[in-house]
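Let us work through a complete example step by step.
Step 1: write down the sequence.
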Amino acid sequence: MILAGMNITFRHYPFDFFLNSMEKLGLRHIELWGGEPHFYIDRQPLRSIRTIRKSIKERSLQVVCYTPEQCVYPFNLASSDPDLRCRSLAYFEENLYAAAELEAPMMLVTSGIGDYSVPAAESWKYACDSISRLARAAETEGIGLALEPLTRFETNLIYDLQGLKNMLKEIGSPALLGMIDTVAMQLAGETPDDYYAAFSQVPHFHLVDGDGCSDAHLGLGDGKLDWPSYMGALLRHGYKGAFTLEIMGSRYYRDPEDAIRKSLAGLRKFGFSS
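Step 2: predict the structure and record it as tokens.
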């Protein structure tokens, strides 16, 4: 089983601190979050990208997914402002090329959020066009594009399996695949079995706990979700991807290493190991 740590939990520490923590905790895989202060595409020259790649390789770590920051201002693939949408698309395209340099097999993307002043169908059209362009670029680069449903707290576009299915069908790119986030899936009232009934494969999984009523991404055992059953279902379906511990929130930022350590202990408690 592939378990991956994510540097978003370590956002208030240097990037090397995160890498050293992964080594200390015995994790061999990481999901690389592309955000300040660790890695931000608008200020990272090619030389810096290669330095980061070298630091990762020196510790014999492997990037399972590259996830550029996209859930907060100022990028939005579904914006009705054509200039903002164009700049957002350019941002994601540059991140796609960075993913290739970092030798990441896939990049994560979300739908963005539609402006509430326009019809939902119009926002969907904008998101579809943007993601379609990214998917074509991903095909050229030989990189998978993992489309993640968010929660209704984060978007008014793709927040459940049906929305995900609709977007994948409309775009029809072999590079574009639907992934699972534990919290978004639970809030939508869905299960891994639902995803496998819809898709022949699932490329990626964000493993976190939650409180069952908000978009909180908690350490394993800190919430109410039945995440062990989710993992068990995925493994029964022959899931081959990574389980990324996407733990977020101010309660974890002071001591992120402890948050990962406790989650790993929770996994061992239920018989899961890397």
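Step 3: interpret the result. The radius of gyration is 18 Å.
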